[in-house]
Amino acid sequence: MKRFTILAAILALATTLYMAGVATGAMFLFAAAALFEAAFWVQLMRKPRPQRVIAKRDPRYRR
Fold this sequence. Notes:
By secondary structure, this protein is mostly helical. Helices cover about 65% and strands about 0% of the residues. It contains two helices and no strands. Helix 1 packs antiparallel against helix 2. The longest helix is centred in the N-terminal third of the chain and has 23 residues.
């Protein structure tokens, strides 16, 4: 769930920067938005790390 929240924040920031770039005509805002959009797509395509499963052993069955 945390991964999708971060992805949504990156996409929202990129959208905000694109809109600010259109309103002001500043090319560095477009460039920053493109970087954040690229980060969004890279994170979206990357597979999430599998959770490590720790098996708890029952002490009654110790060798």
